[in-house]
Amino acid sequence: GFLDHVALGNEEWNPWEGDERNELVASQQRYEANLKMIKNARAHLGETSLRVQIWGKAAIGLYLWQHIFEGHLQPADVTAQWREGSQKAGKIYFSFITGPSVVPGYFSVEAENVVLVLNGREKAKITYATQWLHYAQTLIQTHKIQHIAVVLLGNEQCNNEWIQPYLKRHGGFVNLLFVTYDYALVNEEDIFQWPLGVATYRNFPVVEPSWSMLHDPRSYLCNFLGTVYKNSSRETLMEILKQDGLDKLCWIAAREQWQPQETNESFKNYQDALLQSDLTLCPVGINTECYRIYEACSYGSLPVIEDVMTPGDCRNSSMYHSAPLQLLKTMGAPFIFIKNWKELPAVLEKEKKMSLQEKIQRRKKLIEWYQNFKAWMRQKFINTLENSFLPSDKG
User: GO cellular component annotations, sorted alphabetically (predicted)?
Assistant: First the structure.
């Protein structure tokens, strides 16, 4: 509008109609001042706005977009070959694309700044992830894009060495890395811990808290639906529950084989268990952090977490007193942390004595904490991109 106004003003101004030369000079100065103002405004606009395209090539991208950013995707159909969404947040205009049809070289690169969401859990996934990184590197070399951040579903033992040569600090081109689990190289400068989130690969939904979810009495003290691995603490947990007849007070459905895909029935059972239990038991698996923690929070069922380090290269607890689950603990997660499942009977005893009113307050606190946690992660993500990708005001 401002540009049109200046152009129009210029057309209306006719120097030959004015008798006095002063008027001519004053008008010329006004016109030049306006032009300068527009030029400054444009330069300022360049400084304060950033276009970022997110390429979602791992299910964790849906947690980022739909749960943390509360973004929408079109089409809504989760099986669609191509899904996209956009939103403005902070100084950044984000666009998000995901789906099997998003293949290197077969979509338009619409921003100079890219966030690449990758899966690095195992060898085959890493091979696929490196193809994307090489594609991104080519785009940087040909000046099609300027900056790259990676959100990585890391390996559960924190074996993420393969990504290191791609980081700027090691001579690569990746400006920022957001990585899951307690990766020892997290430094809050260019490597940040990222939450695992809910199992979006099983289409776990964004849950809106309802009145009944907060206020209704729940039928079970606790729940555990999951795989019981041989010689694991999960076997100990099952024994303790059976010993004291506590399994009668809790919704327990154990299986011996892990199933990556839920059936509609087993998934509905799982959601019902979260909704109908005051506590969700979270024994360690391959890593202490699991989807179950975040899924329980979504339904206001308090996670009871086995707070022990799992084998591998994740943060050594002697050096990092708040590992495992450094990120959640730093953010003041109101969970119950136990070192051994032998502590569970005392926890459940206390639970039996709690009034509904106390449980309602606890649910409200948990759901509010989880909403704040997601909002905080979103803001941190935006701030980090702005600080890294926007030209600085120095000089």
Answer: Golgi apparatus
CA-based max dimension of the chain: 105
Annotate 282-329 with DSSP letters as a single string.
E--SSSS--HHHHHHHHTTPEEEEE--PPSSSBPPTTT-TT-SSHHHH
> Phi and psi dihedrals of 215, rounded to 5?
-105, -20
Instruction: Look up residue 126 and give its DSSP letter.
Output: H
Rounded to whole angstroms, the Cα distance separating 267 from 318 reads: 38
Please report the pLDDT score of residue 275 as a whole number.
97
| Total-model pTM | 0.85
What is the C-alpha separation between 214 and 338, in angstroms, rounded? 25
Contact 195, 186 (CB under 8 A): no
Q: State pLDDT tens for residues 82-123.
A: 999 999 998 999 999 999 999 999 999 999 999 999 999 999
Averaged pLDDT of the chain: 89
- Lowest-confidence region among 258-272, 303-317, 331-345, 351-365: 258-272
